[in-house]
Amino acid sequence: MDFSRLKRLRKGRIFSVLFIIVFSLYFTFSGYARRRVRIIFSSSCRQYEQPVYSNRLTDRIVDYSEQAKRTGIRACRDEKELRKLVSEGKLVRVSSGRFFQIDRLTFSYSYITPEARDLLKEIGKRFRERTDREGLKGSMFIITSMTRTTEKMKGLRRNNGNASANSPHLNGNAFDISYRRFSTRKFFVTECDKRFFKEALAEVILDLRREKKCWATYEKNQSCFHVVAR
Description:
Layout: H1 3-28, H2 31-41, H3 61-71, H4 79-87, E1 92-93, E2 100-102, E3 111-112, H5 114-132, E4 140-145, H6 150-159, E5 174-183, H7 191-210, E6 214-219, E7 224-229
Parallel strand pairs: 2-4
Antiparallel strand pairs: 1-3, 4-5, 5-7, 6-7
Helix pairs in contact: 5-7
C-alpha cells in the first residue's frame, strides 16, 4: 500500500472540507459581516470620506498654562509624590483598556487627574464609534505621554530641547496621543487607513475642544496630539 499517496489524499480531503466550510460561512454571513471581512483582509488603499481636522488643533501653551496650573496638581519631584496624590484622590492611575493603549512611558507616569481620565475615556469612546462606522471595529489609539515629574522633565529636556518647562504634563491634566501608530484588527494597514485614523482622531478631539472640554495642539515634531483637560 502506498502510504504517502494515502496521506496526500487525506490532506487533500481535509483542505477541501475546510474550503467548503469557509466558503459556506462566508455566504451565510450578513452583507455587513461580509463587508467587515473584506475590510479586515483588504490590502488596497481605501479612500475614506474623512476631512482633514488636525491643522485646526492650534492651542498654545502660553494661552492656557495658568489655567491648567489652577485646575491641575502642583508639580511633583518624583513618583513617590505622585502616589501620595493618588491616595488623596487628586490623581488616578490609568491602564490600557477597551478604548486605548498606553505605550511604554519613558519620561512620564500613567497618572492623571480624574477630569483628564474622564476626557481620555470620552475621546476613546467617540473614536471607537467613529472607526466602527467604517467597519474598523476594535481600533484603538496609543497614549505616548502622561504626567511628568520635575525629575522626568529634566531628563526629557536633555533629549528634547523643545520640551516646555511650563508643560501641563507637570500638572497632571495633559496627555499625548500618537497620530502615527494605532492598534487595529485589520491585517494590512495602508497609508489610507493611517490618514483616516489620524483625522478621525483629530475630528473627535476638535469636537471636544469646541465643547470647551479641552485644549489641543497638533505637534508635528513629536507626531502626537497634545491634549489638556479644561
